[in-house]
Amino acid sequence: MRAEGAIGRDKLPSGAISGENPSAAKQTPVEPGQRACGPTHLPTYELTTHDLPPGYQFEAWRNNFAPMLEFDEPDDMTVGFGGKQVTWDLGCLAFSRIETDALGFVSLPGHTRRDPLDHWTLTTLLYGCVNTIAPARTFEGSAGVVQVHSLARPFEGNITNSEMLMLFVPRDFCTEVTSALNAAEFSNLSTGMGRLFTDYMIGLAKRLPVIDEAELPALVAATRAMILACASPSADRIEEAREPIASVLIERAHRIIQARLFDPKFGAESLRRELGVSRSRLYRLFEPFGGVMHYIQHRRLLDAHSALSDPTDQRRIIEIAEQHCFNDGTEFSRAFRREFGCSPTDVRSGQKVDLPYKPAADLKAYAPEERFGVLLRRLHG
Predict the structure, then answer these.
(1) Which of 158, 217, 219, 230 would you call most buried, defined as having the most Cβ atoms within 10 angstroms of its Cβ?
(2) Helices (H), ranges, 215-328
(3) List of residues 6+ apart from 245 with CB closer than 8 A
(4) What pLDDT score does 28 carry?
(5) What are the boundaries of the region Disordered (predicted)?
(6) Which sequence spans correspond to the domains of the chain?
(7) What is the C-alpha to C-alpha distance for residues 16 and 88, in angstroms, rounded to an integer?
(8) Buried (b) or exposed (e) across 187-208, using 16+ Cβ within 10 A?
(9) How many angstroms separate the first and last alpha carbons of the chain?
């Protein structure tokens, strides 16, 4: 049963954590523990225990994690053990999506040292709970909270049936990151910035299956900036991470707006409070979209267009307008025509209408590297 407080699976592509690759139909089957071949340009490794006989499943899972952890052996090895892991090699970092049955664990420094790994792990659970006992503290992690562990220190604990995202950061990755994670190890990043890092991790899980290797330097730089801004925030570090933070905030705002689409009381101030940002920050985020309220209305009109286009939706136009927070039918029709170049009645009747046309933007005033973005924002409406 799914644990209370689980992160919604709609944040990830279908099969993202269930061990399915969204591009699996185009890929060559991968042997457990072997490098995957497919359309993604990043080196990817996959392991699943479900293809093995039940009596061998736990042993395969334990061997997979042997360089960093020792697992407590189940009472009955014959009943099988479910575990799936997909790992991307990011050069100087690694990122995993993991699904595991419940188990106990102990770090190798506190047990039997096999390999000189001293990485940090930054983990966010999508569902489940983990309890960690370290020499100086005990802490629990739950869905949506980033936990920081150090593989160079002794610790032990247990985890319930869980799904998680895990970022591996080597100790020599960056001096500033070393300092920040040293201060944060064996703790939860439960602040507002820490929750932003959870969203950033979920964004990575979405992007990595399709990212090109040429994008890796920028991705690693953004990840470094996000670690510093979230683990040890300061004005300078938050400014350095401005672009990835903005991307995370926009994605979170999109989800909030979609969830509150039919709430007539929802507006810019409600969105600002839920995002936890200042008014000026909110307006800067939505400036490329023509402003906060313009974007909210745009999403409502898109949803109304979808309802009007659906032949099974027999509601009156004014009912659809009211559902989408337009109390006046004339106001709804005017806004609808401005957005789509046709009336709600045209869409409801299914008659052929001209495609909406917008005058070409004058891009000469923009730098060459800015023009494409300006064009796409104009198309957005």
Answers:
(1) 230
(2) 216-231, 235-240, 242-259, 268-275, 279-286, 292-309, 317-323
(3) 196, 226, 229, 238
(4) 43
(5) 1-44
(6) 9-241, 260-380
(7) 13
(8) bbbbeebbbbbbbbbbbbbeeb
(9) 42
The one-letter code for the residue type at 342 is C
Instruction: Identify the burial level of 285 via C-beta atoms within 10 angstroms of its C-beta, where 0-12 means exposed, 13-18 middle and 19 or more buried.
Output: buried
- Spatial distance between the Cα atoms of 21 and 46, rounded to a whole number of angstroms: 10
Question: Given pLDDT bands bounded at 50, 70 and 90, which one contains residue 2?
Answer: very low
Report the alpha-carbon distance of residue 256 to residue 273 in Å, rounded. Answer: 11
3-state secondary structure of 211: coil
Class of the domain covering 260-380: mainly alpha
Do residues 230 and 189 touch, judged by C-beta distance below 8 A?
Answer: yes
pTM: 0.64
Q: What average pLDDT does this structure show over 270-289?
A: 86
- pLDDT of residue 161 exceeding 90: yes
Asked whether the beta carbons of 90 and 220 are under 8 A apart, the reply is: yes
H/E stretch holding 195 reads helix 192-207
Q: Which among 65, 31, 66 is positioned nearest to 51, based on CA atoms?
A: 31
